[in-house]
Amino acid sequence: MHPNPSNPHNKVKRTVPLMPQGSKLLLVATMIALYPTLSTVAYASTTDNLAISSSAKPDKIIKLKEIKKKYQRLLVGERNIASAMSVIGPTQIKHASSAESIYSLLKQTPSVNEYQQNVGPGTPVLTVRGVRMSQLAQTLDGIPMTDLLSGGQGAYLNNNVGTIISNGQISGIHVYPGVAPPDRGGFATVGGTVSYTTKTPPEKRYADIFTKIGSFSTDTYGFDASTGKIPDTDGLRIYTRLSQTQTDGYIQNTPARYTDFLFTAIKPYDYGLSKVTGTVIYNTAHGYLISAPNAVAQLDKYGIFYNYPLSESSTFQRNQYLTAILGDSTYINSHLVIGAKAFFIHKHSYLAGYLDPKYIAKDYPYQVNFNNPYSGYGALAPTTASPGVIPHTYDPVAVFGSYPAGEAAQINYGGSNTIGIAPKINIFLPHNDITIGGLVAQQTAGPGGGSYFYGSLDMPKIYGYNSYGDPSGKSQRTVYSGYVSDKINLINNKLHIEPGVTLTGVSTSNYVPANLYGSPPNAYTLSNYDKEILPYLGLSYDITHNVIAYASYGKGARFAPVADYLLGPSGSTTLAPGPETVNAYEAGLRYVGKHLYLNFDGFLQNMHGMFSFYTNYLTGLSKYANVGEEQMKGLEFAGKYEINPEWTVSGHVSYTNAQYMNSFSANVTPFEGQYGYVFAGDPLASVPNWLAGLRVGYHQHNFHAALIESYTGPQVTTYDLPPTESNPLLQDATTPNPGVKLAPYFLTNLQASYKVPIHKDHLSSVTVSLNIDNLLDNHYYLHYYQSYKEYAFAGVGNPYAEAYPGMPRFIELGLSGRFS
């Protein structure tokens, strides 16, 4: 779970030929290029030696351990990092159940709160130190996997089912809360970076066939295969994996299906000192989700996992994710390694929502589904084609008898393409290790999407008839970013100074086909250019060989979503909020021993210019501004102890105090599904003060087992101010409710697997696995709040409580066979 650079099992078993004079640094530089983080090297137990072609004419033999010791200043980059960092390794990923996702795995690290709505990657909600998912950077092999136009995976209720990469496609995760050093920070974050690493082709040839059967009719099956080193190709290796998971969901009427495909290849050259890599990922997902939690009164009456039948209420998503990455890392000389990654990401999202008209009524007390047009817009009367109007001649009353019945269903779909390149240069000097890198990327959404409404999901989709969006709309954002980071080693390699700076410019345009709410009446384009200079300074000092003190300061920025751009009152000016920013401070103490790793740190994150908006549903107009101030501060402790070669204990505990520093209109919940007004001094909702986890692992020969315990402390909930408030800003506005907190809960997970050697024909082994998530079958709520029913963009009735339940006990049996 956490980096331990002094892995006691990373022993040298063989020797490696020494290259001619001056080539030791070449070897180490290559090691750095191929294994960019020490924790990856340590946890992979890299005991193999570098293979050097006989044409190098070695003149003597030395041990790889001696090279590591002599050039330790290059290999301890993560050991001496001046920021908090957590690692999730391949073992934790491999043994996770099908119910988990790349986001739920993050709960095994400090200050991370996460929940999801379904088995597998279904509608994740994530915070790190109270900073929500849309404000975090996420990278995949160093490229941005977040949506450049909106942040996070995308806009609200887009791409919420499935992900661009799945558990079975990754080999490791690095979590950098706060502001990471520039070469690890990713694009656009005000509170943390989550870095995912895809699986690389193994050197051994094999093929695995696997299947799992679990609770809630959850079935997983697939295969993966490695070619090993293909003969007569100078080391070309290829790996591929295909898997499919289907589930009925632990909440009633939420079935889902996920299909994941990975193809990756690596081709070394220059005697193995350089390499070309290629990765293609194609994931698809479709499933039903709950757009509005159900009333607690109904859950008490019908059962905690109750949900309306799909014939009465449904929100369905079908998503596609295609990612292609082509990379190169080239050794130039003993001081210089250069590389670059070109990438392409395609996303497509389809959403269909329906609500039985009998629930679209003032006298029905609960909000069943937000994905019907009448709840959000009210009566959409027929319009005619005129300047400034998107016409729809569809008449809900004439076709279905009333506006609620004729606006019971909607279909939205759209997609985006992102293309870019991320170059990188590593310079190795006697006392410095300099990294220069950058990112040039462009994401385009539209034209070609669509938004339609009708009385049923079996609807015509005709622009000008039943459309309430213009498919010719188009938005685009181009990112130009560059950074320089240095690692200066002084005082006999005890003091490490890591200065760096990132300069990012963002050019954005949004073509609006028609201005619905003002002048000019014709189409227009909103455009804007923003830039930010983001400094970073980290210091670490080796007090002893094992004890390291560190401190850092970093500034981060997140650029406004394209949807926040508005036309100014003059009809020609773009009103665009500036970036929201954070000034993050950290200080900590780290112990790194052969069998013990400990880390203790404190943090302070002051967030400025947070995005604020207010929407008047009577006019449809929204106002956006940078007025919010937030502060996160807290303490974190994490550790890992290898008791002996069989037993390992790791754990973490963290305290976070997150609060609003002023009063403003805000997105109040992490999923951004509730917005309203917050007051100075209010705590952030859905951010537990206390989080903790403990993992006890056992491994001997072919048997693996782990017991994982997690604790999620009380969380502040939300409630809606009454519709009778005299201030229109506060009418029906959601706000934090410190007086009502979500109850804390413990979860216990059990993992076990046993590999049975076979060695018959081509079948070398069979592995049997068992996963039990929520072993004690605790019943608990993940999300809870009080609100009014929304009816035609207004709060009606009496306030009531709504909630999402957490997953009950999930049992899964697995079987896999390895052929070699």
Summary of the model, kept short:
The protein is mainly beta and 820 residues long. The radius of gyration is 27 Å and the shape is globular.
Please write out the topology.
Elements: E1 16-18, H1 23-34, H2 38-43, E2 60-62, H3 64-70, H4 72-75, E3 86-88, H5 90-94, E4 112-115, E5 125-128, E6 131-132, E7 137-140, E8 143-144, E9 170-177, E10 192-198, E11 205-214, E12 218-227, E13 237-247, E14 256-269, E15 274-289, E16 294-295, H6 296-302, E17 313-333, E18 336-355, H7 373-377, H8 396-400, H9 403-406, E19 409-428, E20 432-445, E21 450-454, E22 474-490, E23 495-512, E24 524-542, E25 547-558, E26 566-567, E27 574-575, E28 580-592, E29 596-616, E30 621-642, E31 647-660, E32 664-667, E33 675-678, E34 690-700, E35 703-712, E36 715-720, E37 734-742, E38 745-760, E39 763-773, E40 781-790, E41 795-805, E42 810-819
Poorly predicted sequence stretches spanning 5 or more consecutive residues: 2-77
Mean pLDDT figure:
87
| CATH homologous superfamily heading of the largest domain | TonB-dependent receptor, beta-barrel domain
Structural class: mainly beta
Q: Give the total of beta strands.
A: 42
Straight-line N-to-C gap: 31 Å
Q: Which CATH first-tier class of the largest domain would you pick?
A: Mainly Beta
